[in-house]
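4.2 Preliminary Data

To establish feasibility before requesting continued support, the project team ran the inverse folding procedure on a target of 118 residues. The structure was first converted into the token representation described in Section 3, and no sequence information of any kind was made available to the design step. The complete token record follows.
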């Protein structure tokens, strides 16, 4: 039975192939009603190496602009790198949200567009 699920190099194969490798999904719940209200919200997350899920997990909707933001990649990077992608990305998203809140939407949009053009 389970011989096909174990590899001496990779270890145990999990049920979701995206979790091969470290299998680390680092996530945080963050309220971003302005940034996530952009039409290119999911594209922005992808450009930052992040993914956004709704408040109830995969394929769910956001509640009040709150999202479960996590690292998008699971394979080929170490745990420290994956956690740092989340920390740095979430901090940047919160910075842009604060800019929107403080009336600096134009500057936030410029910075976001730079990320989207990479």
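Position-by-position output of the design step:
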């Amino acid at each position: 039975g389970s011989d096909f699920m174990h590899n001496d190099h990779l270890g145990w194969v999990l049920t979701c192939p995206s979790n091969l490798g470290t299998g680390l999904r680092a996530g945080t719940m963050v309220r971003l009603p302005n940034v996530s209200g952009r039409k290119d919200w999911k594209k922005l997350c992808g450009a930052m190496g992040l993914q956004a899920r709704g408040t109830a997990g995969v394929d769910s909707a956001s509640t009040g602009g709150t999202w479960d933001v996590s690292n998008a990649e699971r394979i080929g990077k170490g745990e420290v790198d994956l956690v740092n992608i989340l920390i740095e990305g979430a901090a940047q998203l919160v910075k842009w949200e604060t800019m929107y809140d403080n009336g600096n939407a134009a500057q936030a949009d410029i910075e976001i567009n730079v990320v989207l053009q990479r």
